[in-house]
């Protein structure tokens, strides 16, 4: 039995939903279907989730949002109309949205309820359509399915008991359609995962029902060795390990959420990335282990939006607790760090720039001066991190040399180099403006 997740691009229009229905009809093993909210129909289009977030924000700030509700209603009405389904689902969406918005007060749990509606109604549309073509399909809410999550609005984590709850769904007959992207706390509050989180729901469901395979349907034939918006028609990856994929997803391969691997990995379920628009293509298999190949680098990813705080202090290495005290300051300010490369007398803390508001920066710099008595503090802004990833690179001669040469050939300055402790990646910090040039040069060096 398989779990299939269809992303926003796969349910963006009636035409796409018909392709999804054909894929489900063709494979009776697909018993659990997870769907995202309708996404972009072309590159200039909008995602329903973005509009819902804008509605919630405008509502909280007392700004008009009627035109956005209208836009969402039009998209759903058009889909329903073209699938010959009753418009009742669109009316229900309108009513649910108004109820979720309720009072004028800013209330973050309500934002999550509003954000989830794209997935809820996408799942309702798909189950109605599958039923209309004669399949036994039922809409299953994550609460009924037993997906229990932590109370972290917009950034939920799955709780262990979910898996046993989901296993119980196996006894139900027919095809169960589950909206992705959210779960419920033990107290019954709806909380969403981070953006792109329907991939996480798919993985949780696959782990819970002990599926033989988790298929993640999107709009590309495979995971490519590099983001296709940076390199034209890059090489495809046929097999990749969980470890490699997690590093690459984290570093910018937006095709699959980096938090979506662990649930499936923990119970040994392989994941396959496939194309709704070309289901015949074999896709990319994500597995626990693979045969070593001569080419140890499997992919190159890069992402911007980082900044780094560098401190140096003579004899830092001999000062007991220095690193802990520095990181404690970030923790006290509720800032999580991404990397913390260090030397004998210096240490950098790399964080996501959007966490580093002017106020936080002032407090952190002040505390470092007052409490740690450092010699130097420097902030590097607008950084990008590039990850060169591949199992086996730790025992392959010349990978670092090839990578640094490629970055140098692109005339890009390296602000930071870090051989990840994971042993499957090498990280380079560069200025964000240089990202595409550096990635293109690395691609050429490793894959052309
Ligand atoms: N290395 C990569 N391989 C394949 N696709 C990638 C990669 N990096 C980024 N992408 C982008 O990810 C997109 C698919 O993810 P996403 O837009 O979230 O799809 P969905 O709507 O199915 O959830 C692709 O269209 C592609 O532009
Ligand atoms: N709709 C949500 C969740 C999701 O996973 O979407 P997609 O499959 O389109 O990336 C979002 O936009 O974040």
From TrEMBL:
Gene3D superfamilies to which the protein is assigned, alphabetical: Acetylglutamate kinase-like, Aspartokinase, catalytic domain, VC0802-like
Residues where substrate binds: 49, 119
Keyword annotations from UniProtKB, A to Z: Amino-acid biosynthesis, ATP-binding, Diaminopimelate biosynthesis, Kinase, Lysine biosynthesis, Nucleotide-binding, Transferase
Keyword check for ATP-binding: yes
Family matches, as InterPro entries: AceGlu_kinase-like_sf, ACT-like_dom_sf, ACT_Aspartokinase, ACT_dom, Asp/Glu/Uridylate_kinase, Asp_kin_monofn, Asp_kinase, AsparK_Bifunc_asparK/hSer_DH
An example Gene Ontology CC term for this record: cytosol
SUPFAM superfamilies the UniProt entry points to: ACT-like, Carbamate kinase-like
Domain ACT: from-to ranges: 388-448
Binding site for ATP: 5-8, 218-219
Record has Cell membrane as a keyword: no
EC top class named in words: transferase
CDD domains: ACT_AKiii-YclM-BS_1, ACT_AKiii-YclM-BS_2
Pathway: Amino-acid biosynthesis; L-methionine biosynthesis via de novo pathway; L-homoserine from L-aspartate: step 1/3; Amino-acid biosynthesis; L-lysine biosynthesis via DAP pathway; (S)-tetrahydrodipicolinate from L-aspartate: step 1/4; Amino-acid biosynthesis; L-threonine biosynthesis; L-threonine from L-aspartate: step 1/5
Any Pfam family hit: AA_kinase
Reactions listed under catalytic activity: L-aspartate + ATP = 4-phospho-L-aspartate + ADP
Record family assignment: Belongs to the aspartokinase family.
Function summary: Catalyzes the phosphorylation of the beta-carboxyl group of aspartic acid with ATP to yield 4-phospho-L-aspartate, which is involved in the branched biosynthetic pathway leading to the biosynthesis of amino acids threonine, isoleucine and methionine.
Name of the protein described by the UniProt record: Aspartokinase
Origin organism lineage: Bacteria, Bacillati, Bacillota, Bacilli, Bacillales
